[in-house]
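Field notebook, page 519. I keep forgetting to write these up properly, so this time I am using the form the group agreed on. The chain and the ligand, adenosine-5'-diphosphate, are recorded exactly as supplied. Prediction of the bound pose follows.
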Amino acid sequence: MANQPIFILPEGTERYSKRDALRMNITAAKVLAGIVRTTLGPKGMDKMLVNSLGDVTVTNDGATIMSEMDIAQPAARMLVETAKKQEEIVGDGTTSVVVIAGELLSKAEELLDDGIATSVVVKGFRNATEKAVELLQGIAIDADDKETLKKVAVTAMSGKGSDYAKEHLADLVVEAALRIEEDGKSDIENINIQRVSGDSVEDSFLAEGIVIDKAPLSKAMPKDIKNAKIAIMKYPIELKDINTDAKIDITSPDQFEMFLKNEEQMIRDLVDKVVDSGANVLFCQKGIDDMAEHYLKKAGIMTFKRVKKSDMERIAKATGAKLVTDIEDLSEDKLGSAGHVYLDKLFDHELTFIEECENPKASSIVLRGSTRYVTEQISRAIDDALGVVAATIEEGKVLIGGGACEIDLVKQLRDYGETVNGREQLAILKYAEALEVIPRTLVENAGLDTINLIADLKAAHEESNLIGINVFTGEVVDMKEAGVIEPLRVKIQALQSAGAASEMILRIDDMIAARNALN
Ligand code: ADP
């Protein structure tokens, strides 16, 4: 009885403790960083991702790659979450976060091999992250003029499939962001990107107001309405929804005719409610049946059915229309207004433009491209660019990219590390070394000579902290002049997120996983 084993975990549970757990997690994080690092920078390569349904995505956007990959290892999944958070908070820098976190963990492993305790490594890294943030704030440049915003947008879009048209796209992004700016903030949720394949990226343009990817229900409905009174409704104008579960006994042809007439009257009553409200444009999130379509057409109401929820929200915000969930509530005071609503055809694609909206803080980028893959890829690049432009408008502080600010940090953090006593110093120095991974990867991805270029870069930094790598020519140049500029917030967030993720992974010394969870 005394030797009876006691099971506190279900049979089949896998358990890795201490070093095994840590090694396993560090390796997984390094593998993930290894996968995404080849996409970093303007010379980064793309990944082709195919999901279980066979849908293909071609991208080098870190966040997209990681969200499309089916990652099982829990520590790697934590890194994926970190990248997603980075995307959510600042809209760019997702690859950098994972690459930095992977390198930090790699350096942590070296420290652990040298017998440094995990707690010392964690403390040193945390100290170094705080110092790095302070140093970045110190070297940031104040700028939020239009020219800087354009450079920030171009830098964010570099290498993301849009290079040949990036100047034009950057103009659109900056115009769109400035148009909706209010009190020093640019809420990019107000900008919608409408993708239209079948033309060249250079033909992309900025539309004032909202653009939706839909045509009115019928060709006989109005296609162009001035002084639009807009109703938005989440209520179907269909018979099947009126007569749910109704059971009718019909015993004669007269009765049947009556029944049809009644049904017709019900639909007419519903359409009359729309007409009585004074609306001449109706966006309905639900269905509209043929009979209703007929009466709406007769009433001259430009009608759209099954409009996406996100479009409904945008229309509401831009035109001041209030969403009606019961048609009985539809009245004049629920209507929004726009100076001009019209249908237009781009290539063979029909789009509806809602312009001169009540709220002028709405704009849309109509993104053109030869194929769906092109527009999807460029749409992600524009998303990143909008994020960084908004961050720069808000904060007004930028850093010099192309490895310049990282090399400066490496140097200054080393100097700082020398002033810290004890073993923590070793962790700070390793942290500094880890940040070299950004310029090194930019150089590697461009197929350039890493050792020589990094040495040149460090030497040049004795003279100026603006020097970085021109990955196209393989020279070290003034990156401020080259226009490679990034918002301070993206870099700070990347360091903080990478630091927090590596700390979280380093603190795990026991992994208990349900049967088959790790396979
Ligand atoms: P992330 O998802 O981390 O933003 P990117 O693939 O966008 O990754 O690469 C960003 C890195 O590329 C930054 O370090 C930035 O400074 C650098 N970069 C961007 N444009 C250039 C350029 N023209 N020359 C050199 N480096 C550049």
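OBSERVATIONS:
- The chain has two domains: 14-142+399-513, 210-361.
- The chain has 17 helices and 19 strands.
FOLLOW-UP: compare against the apo run.
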